[in-house]
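Dear Dr. H.,

I hope your travels went smoothly. While you were away I took the liberty of generating a structure for the chain from your last submission, since the lab meeting agenda had it listed for discussion. I wanted you to have the full record in hand beforehand rather than looking at slides cold. The sequence, exactly as received, is reproduced here:
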Amino acid sequence: MNNIVDIIFRVLNGAGASSIIFFSTIIFSLPLGLLITFAKMSKIKVISYFASFLISILRGTPLMLQLFMWYYGPYYLFHVSFGLKWRLPAIIIGFSINYAAYFAEIFRSGIESIPVGQYEASSVLGYTNVQTFTKIIFPQMVKRVIPPVTNEIITLVKDTSLAFAITYTEMFTVAKQIAASKTTIIPLLVAGIFYYIFNDIVAFVMSKIEKSFNYYK
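The corresponding predicted structure, in token form, is as follows:
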């Protein structure tokens, strides 16, 4: 029994590292995704094409490969080595930019789903473009994109395990190390339960946020 409790605590210690990756990615990727959305919807063709190309690269290549590029890239391209301290920043940058590309497409679909008549009505009322977006378009966009954003966030919880690719010790890595040393599957089961509980909490919080936007009811 004591052995199982020890395993649980050791696995959950790694949950802190996973949580850092998760929350950092959310904080940076959501606003970055909105900026990429604006770039892709820009009337300046060069900016729009660049944003589209960036999204296609980020969504078309594995996240693990992108983590390798961010971690090892500075050394192989510029012969600059930041050492092991660069692992976490590289992971956060890689995750944030990758998920920003997915969020950008979700945000774009939400914005484009708003009827054109609302833009015309706001123009008649004398709203500027900024006022139209912040007061009319953005609140409706947020309401419409919550379900797909929730799906991406749930995927992010599980994707944090990919940090092991550049030898960053997050929860799943800890679980694998304990399982290998003690020849037991219990650490992996504990990690699986944590991911399940974490995703349930995320789904619950996002459902509450979604319900708060049901103002028409």
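Two observations you may find useful: The chain has one domain: 2-212. Residues 2-212 form a domain with the MetI-like fold fold (CATH 1.10.3720.10).

With kind regards,
E. W.
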